[in-house]
Amino acid sequence: MRHLVYSEMMNGLIIERCTRDQEYNMIKHWHPEVEFQFFIRGKRKFFVDNENYVCSEGSLIVIDSEQVHNTYSHKELFHERILLSFEKDKFEQILSAMGLDLNHFFLHHRGLIQIPEEDREYVENLLGDIAEEVHKKQPNYQLVVHLRLAEFLIYLERMQHKGKKERQSGGTHSHELNQTVNQVTSYIRAHYKEVHSLDELAQAFYLNKSYLSRIFKKATGYTVTEYINIYRIQESQKLLEDTDMSIADVAQAVGYENMTYYNRVFKKYVETSPLQYRKKQIAYKQGLREKNYN
């Protein structure tokens, strides 16, 4: 069961604290917002890009915008965590004026950061202060939220500088296996429109398909089909945003001959249809234009 301790929202930012004691698994997905999850108690598993992590007390998961990730239950179901999610473009101007480059930060801080035991109460209270400011919405609360967020990011930067940051790895892989998988992923990215099956890839690399399937999943966390579909959907999002191609033409351009299947896969990962996604992007860009010219 999920118990919400608090959930607060302002323009471009969401922060919430909750506990959960039942199994809950998410599919691999991505979104334009960046995300932090700080674990107070309990354990939970995460997959971010090509790495698997086990979160426990003091773990902080950092997810950049558009990073493929999911979260799933540990055998110890109970956990309590604080989630902070925000849109970069709503905060980057003021944070940049403070000397913080968000793109640089998320390039160098991804995956799992283990907060030292002596600092965990400080981080918990700092995130709690952000939630309280958003909840009370007193005069100039947005500025205070920016300041608290800057303090949080500076703390993490200082951890890295002092060498206190600890990252977990999803496991070690031999150089030879990594090299093979890297060649396969590069091939998929270059030929994603034409690659349709594990059999085709195995033949192209003169590998047994069961062996390829096993090492690919071990090294990346994806099945071959998942990797192909995710890359195709991400490419189709760009076409939906930047061109006036019909939905059918977009589907065909990224390798889907069946429109029904394309719609189903798109909705699985993006949680909306291609048509609704395009409408939302058009409305968002129109809103930005109106904001800039008014």
Automatic annotation (TrEMBL):
Q: Where is the HTH araC/xylS-type domain?
A: 182-280
Query: Record's Gene3D superfamilies?
Result: Homeodomain-like, Jelly Rolls
Does this entry carry the keyword Transcription? yes
User: SUPFAM superfamilies of this UniProt entry?
Assistant: Homeodomain-like, Regulatory protein AraC
Residues in coiled coil:
none
In the record, what terms sit under GO molecular function? DNA-binding transcription factor activity; sequence-specific DNA binding
Q: Which Pfam families match?
A: AraC_binding, HTH_18
Q: Which UniProt keywords apply?
A: DNA-binding, Transcription, Transcription regulation
Source species, domain of life: Bacteria
Q: Does the keyword Transcription apply?
A: yes
InterPro entries per the UniProt record, alphabetical: AraC-bd, Homeodomain-like_sf, HTH-like, HTH_AraC, HTH_AraC-typ_CS, RmlC-like_jellyroll
Annotated PROSITE patterns: HTH_ARAC_FAMILY_1, HTH_ARAC_FAMILY_2
Mind telling me which PANTHER family this protein's record contains? ARAC-FAMILY TRANSCRIPTIONAL REGULATOR, HTH-TYPE TRANSCRIPTIONAL ACTIVATOR RHAS
What is the name of the protein in this document?
A: HTH araC/xylS-type domain-containing protein
* Organism expressing this protein natively: Enterococcus asini ATCC 700915
Organismal lineage:
Bacteria, Bacillati, Bacillota, Bacilli, Lactobacillales
